[in-house]
Amino acid sequence: MSLKGRGCSVKVKAKPSLERSAILLAMTETREEEERLKKALQESAAIRCGVTELGGTVSTLQHTGKLTNSVISAAFNTGVIPKEGRKIHALIHATLEASNSIFIHTNSNASFALKIGLTTDTEWIAVAIFGRSSLHPLLEHSRVGLGFMHL
C-alpha cells in the first residue's frame, strides 16, 4: 500500500514500525494526509493512531503539564490506550522522552507550534513530536522528538 504526500510516495509494509509511523503522523501537513495515513496504518497493521496539535511557550507547555495533558486526552479520545494505570504510565514516559528532544537548548520564552503523533499495538507505544520553535520569527527552526515505551 502506498500513500502520496509532499510529492513522494510512502509505502506501508505489512508491519510498519510504531516509531516511524508516529513520526510520519506528526509530520503530516494536512488533515487529509493525516487521515489517509491513519487509515492505512489501522487497516494494514492494526496500529491504533492518534494526533493532536498544540502551541505555546516552554513554560506553558512543559511546566504546567499542558503537553502531557494534551497527549493523554488525545490517547483516550482516539482509543490509542484505555484508561488503565500501567498504560497511562507508559504513555507519560514516552511523552517525556519525546519532549526531551523538543525542549533541549531553548529559552523558556521560546514559542512552539507542535504536532504529536501517537501509535500503539498491543505491546508498545510511540509518541512523536514535530514542530517549530522560535524566540523571534527570523530564528524559527524545526524540532523533532521521539519516545517509545513498553505497555
TrEMBL record:
It holds the Pfam family HutP. It comes from the Bacteria. GO terms for molecular function: RNA binding. InterPro entries: Regulatory_HutP, Regulatory_HutP_sf. Belongs to the HutP family. Homohexamer. Antiterminator that binds to cis-acting regulatory sequences on the mRNA in the presence of histidine, thereby suppressing transcription termination and activating the hut operon for histidine utilization. This is Hut operon positive regulatory protein.
